[in-house]
Design a protein that fits this description.
- It is a single chain.
- The chain has about 210 residues and is mostly helical.
- The protein has seven helices and no strands.
- Helix 1 packs parallel to helix 6, helix 4 packs antiparallel against helix 5 and helix 6 runs antiparallel to helix 7.
- The N and C termini lie far apart (about 65 Å).
């Protein structure tokens, strides 16, 4: 009888595990982000929190369309891979810089930069996951990603983030998020042996009318 939990190929396994760590790290922030901004950032208000989140989503949502178009036009996955790694490293750096943020201008700038970093991560991530998903297991593997990488990761991150914010202070949580994001990005490097090489496009054919 077929096992309920089928064996995963190496690409899917690495992505699922790395994204769990990445989501858990991001999950540290929702329980404390608004409180951190309104209590420890000069000139901030509840409205500032909403604007900061809006800046992130607008930046990421617009820019990732251009990233997606670029990687789709280049055959193979090597450009996808390097975009994903670079975006992860930048995300780890920018979120860690929140430790030094003191004004609302710093917050807005960091939100924009984090949006740029995430726009570099998301399109190649989904592209690689989609290309390597096991035929006949699409529903299960996407559901596993949703349930474990996003669901369990978010739940774990939320409870740990709340505890850490109380125990060590809100500001100190941001470098910890950066460290976990860096670890998740290092995990993605193990995808390199499975990345499809760049394939040069065939020369266009020229038809001569007789």
């Amino acid at each position: 009888m077929r096992s309920f939990f089928p064996k995963l190929n190496q690409v899917i396994l690495v992505i699922v595990m790395a994204y769990f760590v990445l989501t858990a790290a991001a999950g540290f922030l929702p329980p404390l982000y608004a409180v951190f901004i309104t209590t420890q950032i000069a000139g901030a208000s509840v409205a500032s929190v909403g604007l900061a989140i809006t800046i992130y989503w607008i930046t990421k949502s617009v820019l990732q369309l251009f990233v997606a178009r670029f990687i789709d036009r280049n055959r193979g996955e090597i450009d996808d891979f390097y975009f994903m790694i670079a975006g992860g490293m930048l995300n780890a750096l920018f979120v860690s810089l929140y430790y030094f943020a003191t004004t609302i201008t710093h917050v807005y700038l960091l939100q924009m930069l984090i949006g740029v970093a995430d726009a570099m991560v998301i399109p190649p991530f989904y592209a690689i996951f989609t290309r390597h998903i096991d035929k006949g297991r699409e529903g299960f593997e996407w559901s596993l990603f949703s349930s474990f990488s996003i669901g369990a990761g978010s739940a774990f991150g939320a409870i740990v983030g709340g505890v850490l914010g109380t125990a060590i202070g809100f500001r100190a949580v941001f470098p910890m998020v950066g460290i976990l994001t860096f670890i998740a990005t290092i995990m993605l490097i193990f995808l390199k042996p499975y990345i499809l090489p760049k394939v040069p496009q065939a020369a266009p054919r020229i038809f001569i009318e007789k």
